[in-house]
Each structure stands twice: as C-alpha cells, then as structure tokens.
Amino acid sequence: NKDDDVKDEL
Amino acid sequence: MNIFRFAGDMTHLISILILLLKIYATKSCAGISLKTQELYALVFLTRYLDLFTDYVSLYNTVMKIVFIASSLAIVWCMRRHPLVRRSYDKDLDTFRHQYVVLACFVLALLLNEKFTIQEVFWAFSIYLEAVAILPQLVLLQRSGNVDNLTGQYVLFLGAYRGLYIINWIYRYFTEDHFTRWIACVSGLVQTGLYADFFYYYYLSWKTNTKLKLPA
C-alpha cells in the first residue's frame, strides 16, 4: 500500500 | 519509527556535528578529506529532493534540513574559511571521486525502485553514501593524521551504521512487507567500508600514540 512506498528513512 | 532508527539518526547527526565543531574550534581540517565531505553533501542533496514535495513528518523534514545544512557547513568551512582552508591536505586528497559519482549514477539508472527522477536520484544517493568514505580512507592511509578525526567521531559513525542495520533487522521481522533491498545491500557494503576505515583509523591512532610517548 502507498504509505510503505514513501521513503521514511533518512 | 523505531528506537534503533531514531538512535541511528541521532548518532549520525552527532558524528557530523562533532566533525564540524572540531574543524571550527581548531580552525584546522588537516587529515580530513574534502572530497568525502563533498560526497556526503551530495548524498543529502540528492536524497532529499522530496523535501518540499513529500511531507512524512516534522521530524523527517527537520532532520533533512539539518543534515543538508551541517554537511554543507563542513564543505563551506573547508573551502572558504580563510584559516581552515590553509590546513587542507590538497595534494594528498587526490582520490578521483568524480569516477565514483559517475559509477553510482550509472548504477542508479540501472538499479532503482522506479525509473523516475526522484527514485533514480534516491538510489544514486544510497550508492554514493556507501562509497563516500573512500577518499577519506585513502587520505588516512596516506597521511595517518587523525588529529581532527577524533575517536568520538569514529565511534558515532560506527554507532550510526550498527544501529541502522539493527533497525533493518527489526523492521524485517515486525513489518509484513518491509523490502528495502537497495538500502540494505548498499548499507551493508557501506558498513564494510566503514569497518575498513575504522581499522586504518586504529592503526594510525596506535602509531601516533606510540610516537607521542616520551622517547
């Protein structure tokens, strides 16, 4: 799902 | 967000701030590779292209700005500060980092999660971060000068890598579909190169300590 694609790691 | 990743981000930031403060306090950058610092700044600039488009969280946005600002501050100090720039080992810091930049960019064109500008530059920044330490490693082998590469700097850099690997293991087991193969594989290569850097750092530190002992 979409929110996993967002790169949340720096 | 898990504690390992938060701690990893904090130790990464602290390592950068330690280096910046050391350079600013001693007004010297002897033994520090400007090329590695420029590669780090390029890593953050190309990785955070989504700074103004994707909003993940306040923490994420603030940290991106801080990483970009602190890495550029080190490059500015080493290039422009009248006192600091005099101590730069220009003739020793000769690693041809442009080839590394090119190789990472070609690899990013071939290996990425999606063939879009943002994803290609993200993959580029991941590959580049893995090899960015090379000029510093070569300079350290040549100069053996660890005056400005304090033990704390190396300690926090190692902690950053170790905590990020634990973070990936943790996410792998707790999230149903955590797949960050590009970041994980590249991160492992990076940690291997950091281990090599730490080895040469230890050798230089040991040699210098022996030299300093009263004859």
Notes on the protein architecture:
The complex is a heterodimer of chains A (10) and B (215). With 10 residues, chain A is mainly α. Chain A contains one helix and no strands. The mean pLDDT of chain B is 95. The longest helix of chain B is centred in the C-terminal third of the chain and has 32 residues, at 181-212. Chain B is globular and about 60 Å long. Chain B is mainly alpha-helical. The chains are: A mainly alpha (10), B mainly alpha (215). At the A-B interface, loops of A face helix 1 and helix 3 of B.
Write the layout of secondary structure elements.
The complex is a heterodimer of chains A (10) and B (215).
Chain A lengths: L1 H4 L5
Chain B lengths: L2 H24 L7 H14 L10 H23 L1 H5 L10 H14 L6 H15 L2 H10 L7 H24 L6 H32 L3
Helix pairs in contact in B: 1-3, 1-8, 2-3, 2-6, 5-6, 6-9, 7-9, 8-9
Provide a compact summary of the structure.
Chain A is mainly alpha-helical.
Largest sheet of chain A: none
Rg of chain B: 18 Å
Tally of helical segments of chain A: 1
Query: How helix-rich are the residues of chain B, as a percent range?
Result: over 70%
Beta-strand proportion of chain B: under 5%
Structural class of chain B: mainly alpha
Low-confidence region ranges of chain B: none
Transmembrane segments (chain B): 58-78, 121-141, 153-173, 179-202
Main location (chain B): endoplasmic reticulum
InterPro entries (chain B): ER_ret_rcpt
Family (chain B): Belongs to the ERD2 family.
